[in-house]
Amino acid sequence: MRPAWGESRQCGRRAVGRSASFVLVAFAFAVTMLGTTLPTPLYPIYRAELGLSELTVTIIFAVYAAGVIVALVLFGNLSDEIGRRRTLLPGLACSALSAIAFVLAAGLPLILAGRVLSGLSAGLFTGAATGALVDLAPDGDGDRASLVASVVNIGGLALGPVLAGVLSQYAGAPLRLAFWVDLALLLPAAVGLWLLAEPVEGAEERPVRIRPTRLGVPDEARAVFVPAAIAAFAGFAVLGLFTAVAPAFLSEVLDIGNHAVTGLAVLAVFGSSTLGQAVGRGLSSDRALPLGCALLIAGMAMLAVALSAASLGLLLAGGAVAGFGQGMAFAAGLAAVNEAAPAERRAGTASSYFVVAYGAISIPVIGIGLLARASDLVEAGTVFAAIDAVLAAAAIAAILRLRRRRTPA
Q1: Of the N and C termini of the chain, which has fewer Cβ atoms inside 10 Å?
Q2: Secondary structure class of 196 (helix, strand, coil)
Q3: How far apart are CA 214 and CA 333, in angstroms?
Q4: What pLDDT digit, counting tens, does each position of 87-145 carry?
Q5: What dihedral do alpha carbons 396, 401, 403, 409 form, nearest 10°?
Q6: 0.70 cut: is pTM over it?
Q7: Interhelix angle 377-406/312-340, nearest 10 degrees
Q8: Confidence at residue 387, expressed as pLDDT on a 0 to 100 scale
Q9: What is the rounded distance in angstroms from the CA atom of residue 262 to the CA atom of residue 257?
Q10: Closest by alpha carbon to 111, among 57, 158, 66, 160?
Q11: Calpha distance 245→220 (Å, rounded)
Q12: DSSP per residue over 124-139, as a string?
């Protein structure tokens, strides 16, 4: 049962209407995700000023994924219990604390703390904001609201490096200004969420009880989950590569020190991912998942050639192709997993899928950092591209085997 949208007050505060609430949630979602990728073009500056190794930079990035996974497991169902608004506001607070940590950071401890807080903010927002947008969808169009959520999510991730890259390259205080701007954007987002019309009826009167999400994959969904999870791992590893290691590739391999270019390189990947998700939603999972994996393989081949040839154009093109494939495969895989899982196990199955995906952001990039320490970035990137292509090919093989089982003799 939906709340009475004509009422102007909720729990003693004035709330805006449903359409305005939809816009406010979308804005807060975008700003929060933008904050998670702001440090990307700044890593070379941190390395130079703090004497950090490439391995340390990858660990800094990886703790973000740890924060996301912790939030997904501990708070994945929280907004269904206590409401979207009471879940989103703490997520926004974590985002603000992350920005403050980076503003004050003079060494590694506060940088690590900022990344963990950033991961917690993303984990709290991803499910709650998506649920809120579906709840608040104009005319009850849940499919369109889900697409808006995906675009806002990935769009925010894409814009963060561009904003930080441009400000650090062409304005003063390169390690501080982007986070001050982030805090300025978070302020109206906080006001908007305070005025949000809570779509979960009665939620604001319920006590806060944390019930960890039960992870696991039911037997009936396992055959679908395995190839989808392999594809998600391969795709999110690419996102991790471009957000954690791309700045070093550009500066050390291609001799490009312009931080704005780094931001644009990440934008190419995430922007293509957004398009891939939109296209993938219009295709059946059986078609979109293997096609997305094939594009991942093509993108990794282009990346390997770009590194050996030191070609910026080929690097950007490879990132765009791989990003498009990642978006398509991820959207198709999530749809297939949700469809295969029984309703009572759907939340835990989807959460398991996201844990695999976010694990892929951290584990491979740490491997790249270790390999780069033993050899160089070109070799590390080439090895990564080969392994990622093999994973995508394994996902395609698993999909084909599943199709053969479904097809009667």
Answers
A1: C
A2: coil
A3: 20
A4: 899 999 999 999 999 999 988 999 999 999 999 999 898 878 888 888 888 777 777 78
A5: 150
A6: yes
A7: 30
A8: 93
A9: 8
A10: 57
A11: 38
A12: HHHHHHHHHHHHT-GG
DSSP β-bridge partners for residue 9: 14
Which residues are CB-neighbours of 114 under 8 A, at least 6 positions away? 39, 97, 98, 99, 101, 102, 105
Q: What is the pLDDT of residue 11?
A: 55
253 CB-near residues (< 8 Å, 6+ apart): 307, 310, 377, 378, 381
For residue 1, pLDDT beyond 50? no
| Mean pLDDT, residues 396-403 taken together | 87
| Distance, CA of 340 to CA of 352 (rounded, Å) | 14
Cα 304 from Cα 313, distance rounded (Å) = 13
Residue 29: band (very low, low, confident or very high) from pLDDT cuts 50, 70, 90: very high
DSSP track, 94-118? HHHHHHHHHHH-SSHHHHHHHHHHH
Report whether 191 contacts 88 (CB < 8 A). no
